[in-house]
Amino acid sequence: MLVNQEIIGGSEIAGYLVAEVIISKIRRRPFSLIGLGVSSGMCLVLSVLTSLGDSTGFLVMETVGLVVNRLVLCCFWSIFFVYVAELYPTKVRSLGFGWVSAMGMIGSTLSPYLIQTSQDNGINTWIDPGVIGLIGTVFLIFLP
Prior knowledge:
Growth Hormone, Chain: A; mainly alpha
């Protein structure tokens, strides 16, 4: 269990470092769309991998997919927060950050309940974040 946490933590650190290197070289909005879309797609791919079987090969692919997904998510969120700062006018920027932080807190609070509801209904737990992420990607299209 501790080794899993160390591996995931390493992928998160790598995601933050990648974001640090590329943030001045990319456009925020297209990268936000791509980052959230890729992460959502990876969740849906992981749902397929977990439903195919419990063999060692599938478990390794699932673990690698999870590590890569965490890297993409950390990189995406780092750059998305810069995008949020650029999105709002200076006078209401703190309200924008507060809104984004509040929605993140609500999502973090509701996620265990969503997982439990999925398990109770026999739905793969990777499908929910994949679908929610795709919906978020569609909403990102309409941001300026």
